[in-house]
Amino acid sequence: MENRSLTVFIVDDEKLIRDGMKKLLKWEENGFQICGEAANGRDALREILFCMPDIVLTDLRMPAMDGLALTAALREQAPTVEVVIITGYDEFEYAKEAVRNGVFDYLLKPVSHRELLETMLRLKHKIHSRSVGYPFEEEERLLQSIRENDGDMGVRTLDVMFDRFKAAMARQTEVYKICNKILTEVDIAYKAVYGPKALAVKPEPPKDATVQELEMVMRDYLSKIFHFGSVDSSDLLVEKLKQYLDTHYQENVSLKMLEDEFFFNASYISRIFKIKTGENYSDYLLRLRICRAKELLTTSNYSIRQISEMVGFGSSKYFSKVFKDMEGVQPITYRNEVRQDGQKA
User: Using an 8 Å Cβ cutoff, are 8 and 35 in contact?
Assistant: First the structure.
């Protein structure tokens, strides 16, 4: 059983009630941590999908998006998040409908300390009891697919394995350990079969990679092993991101801009870019800007201030600092040295 604190997100349109819920229990002493709050379902959904709490406590009637609509959205977009509805007596039938739709439980207002604690402890037991057995059969089939060079078998096996993880709502830490072990076994089998021709490098997924990201990492590794003709969707996303940065480096590019452009969560974009390229998108962007600045310094007579603006730096002082950190000299020194070398040649 895992003893980590469970994260809790509170949703209610009345701040007084949200504050009251935070004071109703000694949350940390009982193994919980309040990780956020929102005044309506619409705002809550955005925050919940970003921080992915273990538990959501939500009022039933709220503006913008009510508790039922929020619950339905979470069932589809974040099925591992457990929901507890808080409702008035006159909304009793709605609360029962919510339970039928997958809500863990409902509590009637005014919520008592005892009822809330009992519900939270039952929920903690459920979450900590989630487990999925080690997929020995799937592991063996994956190794067999490599020995027989059967890429279709490998992909089908991966689908079955991750479907099991998702159905069991397996903990991220558990899936991470399983995937790491299987990646090691696959790597051993791959090198044993292909020897010097084994060019694909075993990936090292970050410890906080989500289950979806772990699946993507394993799919990507199999595609490299079996030399699939098409790249996976994550490769395409990263290529599109790089193309976008290559053509928009002069702008004040932010993760929010990338989120709006590519319709992916900002944290996912940041993670996938790091996993695929080995560097943060911001570092990649800085390299692009400095590379373009070096071209302008040596092929134009624009001032340092003008060049800093042309390559996306708002401040020539900041541009000069970054340039010196990356190139070892100030921009004006770089320009003079390159031009002197050109005259000598």
Answer: yes
- Per residue in 167-221, pLDDT (tens digit) is 777 778 889 999 999 999 999 998 888 787 777 889 999 888 888 889 989 988 9
Task: For the chain, give every domain's residue range.
Answer: 6-129, 136-230, 234-282, 289-344
Q: What is the pLDDT of residues 121-137, one digit of tens each?
A: 999 888 877 667 788 88
Task: Name every residue whose Cβ is closer than 8 Å to that of residue 225 and which is 6 or more positions away in sequence.
Answer: 146, 151, 154, 186, 190, 200
Any alpha helices (H) in 168-264, and if so which ranges?
172-194, 211-225, 233-248, 255-262
Token pair listed for 318:
């900041």
Helices and strands of the chain, counted as H and E runs: 16, 5
Number of C-beta neighbours around residue 48 at 10 A:
25
Report whether CATH 3.40.1180.10 matches the domain 6-129: no
Q: Within 10 A of 181 (CB to CB), how many other CB atoms are there?
A: 12
Residue type for 73, please? Answer: A
SS3 at position 82: strand
In the β-sheet with 105-108, what is the strand arrangement from edge to edge? 32-38, 6-11, 55-59, 82-87, 105-108
DSSP-derived 3-state class of residue 214? helix
Q: What value does the mean pLDDT take over residues 270-277?
A: 83
Q: Domain 289-344: give its CATH code.
A: 1.10.10.60
- Quote the CA–CA distance of 132 and 127 in Å, as a whole number: 12
Distance, in Å, from the CA atom of 265 to the CA atom of 19, rounded to the nearest integer, reads: 29
* Closest to 57 (Cα-Cα) out of 91, 104, 90: 104
pTM above 0.70, yes or no: no
* Coil vs helix vs strand at 85: strand
